[in-house]
Every structure is written in structure tokens, then in C-alpha cells.
Amino acid sequence: MTDAGYDRRTMLGLGLLAAVTPAAAIGQTPPDPMEIVPLWPGHPPGSPAVPPREEVRDRAATSGFQDRIVTGISRPLMTVFRPSRPNGAAVLVIPGGAYVRVVIDKEGFETARRLNEAGVTAFVLRYRLPGDGWTPRTAAPLQDAQRAMRLIRENAARFRVDPARVAVMGFSAGGHVAATLCTRRATPAYPRLDAADDQDARPDLACLMYPVIHMSLPYAHRGSRKELLGLAPAPEAEMAASPQRHVDARTPPSFLVHAMDDDSVPVENSLAYLAALRAAGVPAEAHLFEEGGHGFGIRLIQGKPAAVWPDLFIAWAGRRGLFTN
Q1: Class of domain 37-319
Q2: 167 DSSP β-pair partners
Q3: Which residues of the chain have pLDDT under 50?
Q4: What's the predicted TM-score (pTM) here?
Q5: From CA 255, how far away is CA 155, in angstroms rounded?
């Protein structure tokens, strides 16, 4: 049994054992960590009468590497990646997937391993998807992100992290979750459950990777917008779900990365958030690369200038005092 109480059969069903994929079986990918943290002690808030059916699928046949996605998430959780020499810093990693899936390898586990090399403890979030029947549909991802941040801080001693040095990193739609967490950190998204919910949900820093920010056309990512808000959202719903509209002086310092040739989530999304940060006087650093497309993570950008983004982020977080020993 793990700390979370999952047995091997349950973990296989959740896709948490690397042995279920051929790539891991032949040693191409390190095994998955066995430390799993469920977010909720029972059913998550706003659960539908019939929970979604959780499925894990590996796209290795088309990608050429272990590339698992998760859909129908009914049991949101964090997978903990502990470094061999922890420096006390922590990052909540929120993968993307257009709000219809969570891309756990390419933007989650691979990123966590890179952070481990820098001494950072990483927590990869598997969050609920808004189109799976949760009530209200827009609340589920934010509820999971807030709860995750609070659990990290509540259990800081166990995880060997400093509760005052916890950042968030989000990719694509996960970037929208992260930016929403940063700008709605004090908004109660669910009723208090236990002592963990007395912890602050505000990240100390944020890294937003080609994030979905706009929820209004023409710059909104149409797929993410539809999943989060429905087919024909009202203007006020679009505004409420657009993080750049809610930046203030308490929004965490932020690091943004985007490729100019991203034809899925236009660079105007990062530019809008950056402009809002500057207007509010929030420290920010942004790197806009000529090429890279969308969804590159770490693996798919190798050999291109944007491959330096993890080093740039780690250096920036170090200057901000997050990654110091």
C-alpha cells in the first residue's frame, strides 16, 4: 500500500505504474514514483451522480515515446517527485490537455524529473476536467489546484519543503488553471474540509508555459473555451474566466514562455497576462521564441533555442529566492 492507501491493482488502473507501458518496460523511461497524494478524503466537490470513467492511454505508437494522457478523471491526485538532494523548494506542476485530457508524461513527469535535478520537489497534478459533469463545471480545476497547494503546505514537513517556497507551473490549459489559481487564490472555491484548508493557496511564484489566458475570441483557444464555458458563453462568463482581468498587486511574480509560431494558443495570451502584470506592478519575465509551436514541454523542443527554458526558469526562480539551498 502507498501512503494514500492505493494497492497495486488500483495503481495499475490509475496508470501510475510505469510497468503498464512498453517504453518503461524496456528501460527507456524511469519508473513512476509510488508516492501518490489524493486531494479529497471522499468524493470531490460537485460530484455528478455517475462519476466519469477514468482512462489512461499511452500515445507511444504515434509519438515514439511514453506519452500518457488521462481522461474522465474522478479521483484527482498529485504524484510526488522527490529529488535526491532537496533544497526545500516545491513546484506544483499542472499539465495541459485542452481541458479534455491531462498530458501526464510530456508536460508533467518529464518536467518534474528536470526540476528534481535542481533539487526541487515536484508535485504533478491530475485535475478534474470541466466537461465531466462537475457542478459548477468551471470550478473543478480551480478547486483541485487550491486544494493541492494547501495540502503541500499542510504537509511541508513530511515532504521536506519550505511552505514559503512553493511555486506553480502550468502548461497550456494547465497554464490557465495556474493563472486562475494565481489570480483567484483568495476566492473560496469549495467549503472548508479540514485543517489543510486553512493554508494559503497563493503560489509564491508562477511559471506559465504557452498558457491559455484569453477566454474571448479571437485569441481564445476555442477547444479549452468550449470545455470550460460551454458552446456560447456570455461575455460576463468569458471575463470571469480570463485571468488577465483579475491580476492585482498580490498576483505572484511570474515567468512566461511562448513560441511565436504557436498556432493553437496564440502568443497574445501570454502578452495579455504580461501586460496585466506590468500594469499591476508585479515582477515578471517573459521569453518569446521564434519557433517551437505548441505543447513542446521539454522533449519536443530539443535542438531549438527554446530548449533553454528550464534553465532560464530555474535561474529566475533562484534570483527570486525560491530555489536557494
Answers
A1: alpha beta
A2: 91, 205
A3: 1-13, 15-27
A4: 0.92
A5: 26
